[in-house]
């Protein structure tokens, strides 16, 4: 679905991936996600620590929801006709999944309930006291944080894929209102392959300049990119390529960034 730019979309890019070209950034699916991020940033700004007392809280999340709802109305992005009345729970913690006969090569996802997935937080009380595996936990994500994950997933985790084989990566389809909650609808290619092994996953991330911090968590200090949820169900091997299609990539900031850097130092000392 073609999205109209949101307020500030031309003035603001969510941040170019380290290896991303301008052509990749301006793929239509990436422009749609960037426009939605810009809508959120119109009401909460571009900053905001990702952990600690300055993390985006419920009032800020509510402002973003209201802004996205207005944008959906202005830009014809309500897609209730796209979503089946009955959604089967596939057991994933963040999305319901569904298929459409019109696009059999894509899987469609809708955020669950009033939430927008999860987002990593640093547990500052554990720093330097407990092992690194206890330094981080999940918290509820804001809409902006969820959308930035999609953006980074396309630019950092899947930009190496052959555009002829995968002409459209993760795409924002639009929004629905269900049970009084605004929910985000996205779609991704169906990646046919086998789950990556731990050896596959470790090799790929190290080749990209990441260091392993703890189970399912990698960090690249050069640009502050952290990737969580890197377990094998979220990473496929397709046509000989690693495809981290459902991980949680973020550009760490504030307390979270400092905690990631400290964790990297501690891991190297082991």
Q: Give me the side-by-side strand order of the main sheet.
A: 1-2-6-5
Give helix and strand order, one letter per element, not per position.
Answer: HHHEEEEHEEEHEEEEEEH
Note the beta-strand portion.
15-25%
Q: Give the overall average pLDDT.
A: 87
| H/I helix tally | 6
Q: Helix proportion of residues, in percent? A: 25-40%
Number of strands: 13
The main pleated sheet reads as: 4 strands, antiparallel
Assembly annotation = single chain
The dominant shape is globular
- The Rg value, from CA coordinates, equals 18 Å
Counting helices, strands and paired strands, the structural category is: alpha+beta
The stretches of 5 or more residues where confidence is low (pLDDT under 50) are: 1-12, 49-54
Rounded to the nearest angstrom, the distance between the terminal CA atoms is 49 Å
């Amino acid at each position: 679905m073609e999205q109209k730019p949101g307020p500030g979309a031309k003035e603001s890019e969510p941040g170019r991936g380290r290896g991303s070209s301008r052509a990749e950034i301006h793929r239509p699916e990436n422009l749609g996600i960037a426009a939605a991020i810009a809508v959120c940033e119109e009401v909460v700004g571009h900053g905001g620590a990702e952990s600690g007392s300055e993390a985006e809280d419920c009032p800020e999340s509510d402002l973003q929801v209201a802004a996205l709802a207005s944008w959906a109305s202005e830009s014809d992005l309500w897609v209730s006709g796209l979503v089946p009345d009955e959604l089967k729970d596939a057991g994933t913690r963040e999305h319901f999944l569904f298929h459409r006969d019109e696009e059999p090569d894509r899987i469609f996802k809708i955020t669950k309930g009033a939430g927008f997935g999860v987002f990593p937080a640093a547990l500052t009380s554990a720093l330097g006291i407990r092992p690194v595996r206890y330094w981080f936990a999940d918290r509820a994500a804001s809409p902006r944080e969820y959308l930035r994950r999609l953006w980074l997933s396309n630019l950092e985790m899947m930009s190496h894929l052959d555009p002829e084989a995968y002409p459209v990566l993760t795409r924002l389809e639009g929004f629905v209102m269900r049970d009084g909650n605004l929910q985000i609808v996205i779609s991704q290619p169906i990646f046919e392959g086998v789950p990556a092994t731990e050896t596959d996953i470790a090799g790929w991330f190290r080749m990209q300049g990441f260091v392993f911090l703890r189970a399912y968590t990698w960090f690249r200090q050069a640009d502050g990119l952290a990737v969580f949820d890197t377990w094998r169900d979220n990473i496929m091997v397709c046509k000989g390529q690693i495809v981290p299609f459902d991980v949680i990539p973020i550009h760490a900031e504030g307390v979270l960034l400092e905690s990631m850097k400290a964790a990297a130092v501690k891991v190297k000392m082991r």
